Amino acid sequence: MQMHPKLQELKTRLAEVNDLNEANAVLSWDQMTFMPPGGAEARGRQIATLERLSHEKFTDPEIGKLLDELQPVVPELAPDSPDVALIRVTTHDYQKAVKVPPVFTAELSEHTSKTYSAWTKARAEKNFKLVAPLLEKTLDLSRQLANFYPGYQHIADPLIDDLDEGMTVAVIRPLFQKLRTELTPLIQKITSQAAPDDSCLRREFPEEEQLKFGLEVARKMGYDFNRGRQDKSPHPFTTSFSIGDVRITTRVKTNFLAEALFSTIHESGHALYEQGINPDFDGLPLASGTSMSVHESQSRLWENLVGRSRTFWQYFYPQLQAIFPSQLRDVQSEDFYRAINKVERSLIRTDADEVTYNLHVMIRFDLELEMLEGKLPVKDLPEAWNNRYFKDLGVIPTDDSVGVLQDMHWYSGTIGGYFQSYTLGNILSAQFFDAAIRAYPSIPSEIAAGTFDHLHNWLREHIYKYGREYRAAEIITGATGRPLELESYLKYLHSKYSELYQL
Ligand code: ZN
Questions:
Q1: Cα separation of 183 and 433, whole Å?
Q2: pLDDT at 292
Q3: Which is catalytic among the residues 22, 165, 259, 267?
Q4: Is 267 marked active-site?
Q5: Measured between alpha carbons, how far is residue 461 from residues 70, 413, 457 in Å?
């Protein structure tokens, strides 16, 4: 069948927008990996120019007109055809984009870069007050941004919708509440015991061997290095320039083996998702993950449910020992397994284990809602932060750098819309993993043999290949037969940690 000429024109325009975005992604990737410091100023300008051009091209009234003209065509297309999904996704993105005046976007972006550099200074000097006035303005701008989308139930909803379409505070709050109620006694029981000794991870492990081992694990998982590569950067991330070029980065600590290893597995999980998208979608808005939470569920599934499982190390531990004979010869695999699953009450989210991690996220989520609701003034944030850390985790930050200043999120964008996806991703990781095992009960024994084909294929067929063709809620129900729910995740945590800690 001949493609409708208006649809063809829309695709041509969207491909141009996409080219600008992906060219910009190359610039950002280079900025974080190889660019010398002297390139910073010009690079910032180049990225801003490409962003502006892409935004102008995408919000061109011609695109709006094409979308209007295509609405009557939709009923003529097969309801589950990717073209229908493309029109839906583009309409959603377009309507969101045109609601925000360009002058606001420019103000927010200028304010954000000022705040980010003030934050790096404030964090180095361990002094929240240095960035507080700027953060007050960030809060104001975040509220303004939300108010470009009137009709919300909670002011955070439009911000959450940016990355997690359809998710709302009304759904997340009770879910998190229930999770916290389950986690608190579990953490209590675990941490009342002697903590496992993880000193075996803190010996000296040369960088080259660490990177080599991580790459081998990624390759086994199914990461296609003909369509990707790994480099080093201060903060690990995954970026996609096309379905044929999906890259990850890692960071190595020679005195801590878990750092590069689990960040590589985590980012490879993101990369498998991007590499697994239907190649027909390349260059179009359908060619990315369906939501931030579902994306995060994939990195967490591989990192935690696979990479921190005993079965995984049945295969990989002898190999790791062979690479690091002098460091690990005297370490039994069971001791290594306990070390990589050590649970402790700590101050830093990114270093937290998989059980306490969610408490760190929920603290941030609650505080940002309170700020957006106008109940928590920015100047009181450090005190509120420290109080919650004491109440929920029993620890008190010694200064702001290990407290309210530790994460870049609030200082490099808006307040609200991001943190929930980490815990939603954890919850979903177990829900998807359970469904995959129901389909292929042999998956655990395959993992023990270092093969991941059934798991990888199941994820590709039920999640990856669709990209944004279906919404997150549809993907979750389609893949697992159930809406988003806590059951699998709670069962996973309880059974794994009851056994580990003999609760
Ligand atoms: Zn991630």
A1: 20
A2: 97
A3: 267
A4: yes
A5: 29, 34, 6
